[in-house]
Design brief:
CATH class of the domain at 2-135: Mainly Beta
Largest sheet: 27 strands, mixed, barrel
Radius of gyration: 36 Å
Shape: elongated
CATH architecture of the domain at 2-135: Sandwich
Structural class: mainly beta
Strand content: over 45%
Number of helices: 4
Helix content: under 10%
CATH topology of the domain at 2-135: lipopolysaccharide transport protein A fold
Distance between the termini: 75 Å
């Protein structure tokens, strides 16, 4: 490298005067770019790949001193790197490159380096920098009295300070919120790490913590092997707990996190997560295992029981049409996940599937395994669905504008204890849309559904899953036709800045009565709910096992208002009239008798600071509310309210529910730029009991976060008792954080 510099300068000296200035510009550009590369690869490699541009008020060559100089607003651009300085020179005898006076370098990474004086050796791999200041790409700052560059990729700084915090605008000399001062700091760009020796951490300029050695990733690092922030807590069941995650970066396509939980009362819980990307998919494996005491359903204690869980996901493409995947969720017992705060789910669903989508065809094969975590759940009665194969086809429009549809399914449902069933179903449909010259819209639909069932373990006089009396096997089925004609007529009107659309809707459905024989078990249509979303559905049951038989008329009215400024409102109400009463819908479903209950919704959003949704079901005779749902979001970030209200009469589903009325609200406020807080409560109005209360306060700026949350939970389930909890989360940017939680014994 040194010989190359000598030859380059010598060649310039031998040139005629008229050519020398242009050559000097090129030679000096290469030298000065290389000298500025104090945080990049060697100048030799870079100079070989890209041209350089230089501009300066004056460029000279001193033949007596063998010095090339550029002075006055010197600017050198080399690819994505730019150097600015008052003056730059290269001495061919001493092989020293210097830049002085307001030196700044813009790196491709986005880092900006400032210095008063830079001096580099001829091979450009070692050098000295005085009064260096580095503004990193994420606006972190690193400054030192001096720096020494060695090996082309390491910078040793003396009397250095690092902080990601912004300086005070009113007084930039004031100490930032936190910073690290050290006698020696080394920035290893190859390892992407910053190391400190004899370091103090200061908060508001006050030293609070000393360490002889410390390191953390530099801002260019997105992921790196090392310890993550620990979690410290306490609970009545587990005692004092400490969780220390460790992250392994196994490559760009995979990583592993091991996070053991050490508990004072129940030993050690091993938890971990392995993630990997493949050219055709991804895998995420999570789980835990421990030996700990647990309370059985009968109240007895099982000591040192093997407890744990699995929560994993796989997704893989087979080709452009097909893919397969799996969701695996299992736990050793009902309360384990909630005790160790893994999840609040009440049902775990494992699924294995393969699916394909090609043109207008879709085919999926599923397998399901369920685990209930409620006290009344019996896993022996949980269904094992394998397989559930479903196919859907939508045909091309014909000459008249209509198109055919086909839906088919095959299901095998098995239980360890109780009823088994097999089902083969097919439905052929034809739809014809039409818009009349007057603007009203019609849709004619014809549908024929055929279902065949084989059922084993069916109760003679009971629909229970596991009947106590005698059981029998049945082979049964049905053929169910439907013919529907829907009509709607949108009337639009504009009045100044307001645009309105009023749309009456009517649908007539012709279908036979009955079609739900007692021999057909209800496995997939238990969760029935009549509301505004399914008023005009041909089958208002969520599955295939039950069909919405009988002829009926559905009707409703919708009114939409749209403002020019973006605000809008919508109101809808509708009802159904059945020519014969239904014998299959659940009690209090809203469909008993000829007339149904009235269902509807109201949506109002005049501005982005107010969003209201109200859904209702009113008794057809008294107009008393049978179901009310309110979701309200109101207010700017300075004071924002999120409110949800739910009121349901009992018996809306076949499984049955008690009357429910509950309200939950969360009030949030960002009362300054950095400070925010919230309060929330969930109340069971029927029982006049509070279910949960939470309070939180957060400070967050560009370099620091502290969050405190206090809560009271009233949930009880075997070995889970009501408890108070308090959490503190402290995070220092680049350094990680510490999370603490305490659960006082009641």
């Amino acid at each position: 490298m040194r010989g190359a510099f000598r030859e380059m300068v010598a060649a310039v000296i031998r040139m005629p005067t008229r050519m020398r200035k242009r050559a000097l510009r090129l030679a000096l550009a290469l030298v000065l770019w290389a000298s500025s590369s104090i945080t990049a690869a060697t100048a030799q490699d870079a100079a070989r790949d890209q041209p350089a541009l230089i501009s300066a008020d004056e460029i000279t060559y001193d033949e007596n001193l063998n010095v090339v100089r550029a002075a006055g607003h010197v600017e050198i651009s080399y690819g994505e790197r730019v150097l600015l300085a008052d003056s730059i020179s290269y001495n061919t005898r001493t092989e020293v490159v210097t830049a002085s006076g307001n030196v700044s370098v813009l790196e491709p990474s986005g880092d900006v380096i400032f210095a008063d004086y830079v001096e580099l050796t001829g091979d450009l791999r070692e050098g000295f920098i005085r009064d260096i200041r580095i503004l990193m790409s994420d606006r972190s700052r690193l400054a030192a009295a001096s720096a020494l560059r060695t090996g082309g990729n390491k910078t040793a700084l003396s009397k250095a300070v690092f902080s990601p915090c912004e300086l005070c605008r009113e007084d930039p000399t004031r100490a930032p919120l936190w910073q690290i001062k050290a006698a020696k700091v080394e920035h290893d760009q190859e390892a992407q790490v910053i190391r400190y020796r004899d370091a103090w951490m200061e908060i508001f300029g006050v030293p609070v913590l000393y360490t002889p050695y410390f390191q953390h990733p530099d801002p260019t690092v997105k992921r790196q092997t090392g310890f993550l922030a620990p979690t410290i807590g306490s609970s009545e069941i587990l005692g004092l707990t400490y969780q220390q995650p460790f992250f392994w970066d196994l490559g760009l396509d995979r990583d592993l996190t091991v996070a053991p939980i050490i508990t004072a009362k129940q030993g050690v819980v091993l938890t971990g997560e392995y993630r990997q990307l493949f050219p055709n998919g991804q895998m995420n494996l999570r789980g835990s295992v421990t030996k700990a005491d647990r309370e059985r359903a009968d109240g007895t204690i099982e000591n040192n029981a093997l407890r744990g869980h699995v929560d994993s996901t796989l997704r893989f493409d087979i080709d452009s049409t097909w893919r397969w995947g799996a969701d695996i969720q299992r736990a050793s017992d009902d309360t384990y996940l909630r005790i160790y705060n893994f999840t609040e789910d009440r049902t775990l669903t494992s699924r294995l599937f393969a699916e394909g989508l090609s043109g207008r065809n879709y085919l999926v094969a599923n397998g399901y395994l369920f685990q209930g975590l409620r006290a009344q759940d019996d896993d022996g009665e949980s269904p094992i669905v394998l397989p559930l194969i479903e196919y859907a086809y939508v045909g091309e429009p014909d000459v008249g504008g209509g198109h055919f549809t086909f839906d088919g399914s095959l299901m095998a449902l098995t239980r360890r204890e109780g009823r088994d069933s097999r089902r083969l179903s097919a439905a052929l449909g034809w739809e014809l849309p039409y818009v009349s010259p007057a603007g009203d819209i019609y849709q004619l639909t014809a549908r024929l559904q055929a279902d065949g069932y084989w059922v084993n373990g069916l109760g003679a006089n009971s629909n229970d899953i596991n009947p106590a009396g005698p059981t029998q096997s049945e082979l049964t089925g049905r053929i169910f036709p439907q013919l529907a004609l829907a009509w709607r007529y949108p009337w639009a009107r504009s009045d100044g800045t307001i645009h309105q659309v009023i749309q009456p809707m009517v649908q007539t459905i012709l279908a036979p009565n009955g079609s739900n024989p007692d021999e057909i078990p209800n496995e997939d249509s238990l969760d029935f709910e009549f509301d505004d979303t399914n008023l005009f559905s041909l089958n208002r049951f969520p599955g295939i096992d039950r069909v919405d038989s009988g002829s009926r008329i559905d009707y409703g009215l919708k009114w939409d208002v749209l403002g020019r400024s973006g605000g809008h409102a919508s109101v809808f109400a509708g009802q159904s009239y059945r020519f014969s009463e239904s014998s299959v819908t659940p009690d209090n479903s809203g469909l008993q008798g000829n007339f149904s209950d009235i269902v509807g919704r109201v949506e109002v959003q005049p501005t982005y600071q107010l969003d209201l949704l109200y859904r209702f079901r009113l008794d057809k005779d008294t107009l008393a509310p049978r179901r009310n749902e309110v979701d309200l979001v109101a207010g700017p970030p300075a004071l924002n309210l999120n409110l949800s209200y739910l009121s349901i009469d009992s018996g809306i589903a076949e499984e049955g529910f008690d009357d429910r009325e509950e309200i939950s609200w969360t009030l949030r406020s960002r009362f300054t730029r950095y400070w925010s807080g919230f309060a929330s409560q969930r109340i069971d109005l029927k029982a006049s009991d509070t279910r949960q209360v939470r309070l939180g306060l957060t400070y967050q700026d560009e370099c620091f976060l502290i969050q405190t949350v206090a809560e009271r939970n009233f949930f009880e389930d075997r070995d889970i008792e009501p408890e108070n909890a308090f959490f503190i989360n402290i995070v220092f940017k680049h350094l990680g954080g510490v999370t603490t939680s305490t659960t006082p014994i009641n």
